[in-house]
Design a protein that fits this description.
The protein is mostly helical. The protein has one domain. The chain is built from five helices and no strands. α3 crosses α5. The longest helix is centred in the middle third of the chain and has 20 residues. The radius of gyration is 22 Å and the shape is globular.
Length: about 130
């Protein structure tokens, strides 16, 4: 019973200490392992998986938005830079080695996204 009292005190001390400090919880890193590596087939399926995952983390806007110009508010630029890094990393991590070599030099996620759409959706339409 003494152990129960000690544990309750510890919990209550911890509760008191955490209520005095503010804790910011960030979202965990994206689990890219859930996305099949894109080898050049089934682009629309891969595109949907990537898009959905990035949307869940509220960074998908970097797939369709170019970098804001320097006259934009600092917060908007900062948000875009973060979103671009997450999107670019996620896409490059989910590409085959051959495709990674092609797209790793692209600095904006939007450039990679648009290029993949142009290559694989237009290619599907032509077939």
């Amino acid at each position: 019973m003494v152990d129960g009292v000690e544990n309750n005190n510890i919990v209550s001390e911890m509760s008191n200490s955490t209520s005095r400090t503010s804790t910011i919880f960030t979202k965990p890193f994206l689990d890219v392992s859930k996305i099949e590596v894109f080898l050049g087939q089934n682009f629309r399926r891969w595109q949907e998986c990537v898009s959905t995952l990035l949307d869940m983390y509220e960074v998908a806007f970097a797939l369709t938005t170019s970098k804001p110009d320097t006259s934009s508010p600092a917060k908007q630029i900062e948000d875009w830079i973060h979103a671009n890094k997450v999107c670019r990393h996620t896409m490059l991590s989910a590409l085959s080695n051959d495709l990674f070599d092609v797209y790793c030099s692209y600095k904006e996620a939007k450039e990679i996204w648009d290029s993949l759409i142009l290559k694989y959706i237009v290619e599907d339409v032509v077939r």
